Amino acid sequence: MVVSAAKGRSGLGEPDYIARAEALAASFAARAAEHDRAGSFPFENFRELSEAGLLSLTVPAAHGGAGAGARYAARVLGILGEADPSTALVLSMHYINHLVMARSRTWPARLSRKLARESVEGIALINALRVEPELGSPARGGLPATIARRTETGWRLSGHKIYSTGSPILKWYLVWARTDEAEPRVGQFLVPAGLPGTRIVETWDHHGLRASGSHDVIFEDVVIPLDAEVDVRKPADWRTLDVTLAAVHTVFVAAIYDGIARAARDWLISFLKQRVPASLGAPLSTLPRAQEILGGIEARLAVNARLIDSFASDFDNGSQLSAIESNVVKLTVTNNAVAAVEDALSLTSNHGLSRKNPLERHYRDVLCGRVHTPQDDTTKITAGRAALGV
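Above: the chain's sequence. Below: its structure in token form.
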């Protein structure tokens, strides 16, 4: 259900979400370079998000949240993506899971209500842990090596997850695993963080999004209740993508990478206006070449804005969407974002690659869009097969 501009139980009206995100963005941006350099996790950002009521943005109003849909959530993520994309990425995963819970017929009502209430009351973030060292992303198929063994008193979970975004702060893991039954089922198990047998191994030392805390999480015979089984099915039953999940995942991810490109554009404009080479005797902004390249960046960002806003609005309005269309939106927006930052670098020479300027960080961050699921080759192959009917 789409919430109108009327206020939800949180007291926030939709325009207020944007204003609060903008108010937080300045402090997030001021800390982003330090967290990037140290690879440290921005815990303080999430305290401020909680205090601003933004952690429960996509929690239904009936459960005390703001009840925002994809359009306003994408706008918030875009604003925060400009300031600190690592924070925005962790937040996006939390938003995605609550939107899926609100629309899902498979999530146990008791669990979704519990998680919604916790998100309203404090810092209780959730993310899905799916990727494994051998399996890679389950989006490409295959059974997970993480195993849930059923006993009389509960499930016993063992496995190794990588790229577990937000792991230092998560309260809940939604773990992708298979059962040890004669005919294994595959699906999601809800696991509280910090249970005996759970370890976070700080492996994340990445080129971009360095403050996202995307470490490894290892489960060694971790005991969880039998009713922690969220959605577990036969492998064949997972071949059809969850359109809700695909739609919000791709548009939220796209909004973050677009935000990075907008931050790069803003820095570029300032640089072009202030840089006055002695040989030119005027700012670089007076050069037709600089104006043309900046105009090309503006064109890419204008396309991105239209795609993100219209696609998210269609989702909120209940329009019939497809997973292929969702993936194409992500592909287009992220590639436009990468190209925009590359164009900015072409105008700034060594200045753009200096670590004292933020453009090189924006470039490292935006490149992560190329490897973020769904990846371009998968999107193109799927779209091509659909067009050919094969």
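The domain at 243-388 is CATH 1.20.140.10 (Butyryl-CoA Dehydrogenase, subunit A; domain 3).
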